[in-house]
Predict the 3D structure of the following.
Amino acid sequence: MGEPEPLKFVSLEEEVDYWKEQVAKHQQRSEEAQEELQEFQQMSRDYEVELEMELKQFLE
């Protein structure tokens, strides 16, 4: 497998638009991943609290 072909643009404006689109796409993916991580962390904390409550009840 060789290196991918370098991108070729007709104009500087076309290249700038391309890179702006790439930035926007990656920012969106980053934000979605951050939201998923926060949701997972909150669910984990909630589950931990639930398990601790069940353990307390079991030990009483």
About this structure: The chain has a mean pLDDT of 95. The helical segments are 12-59. Residues 11-60 form one domain.
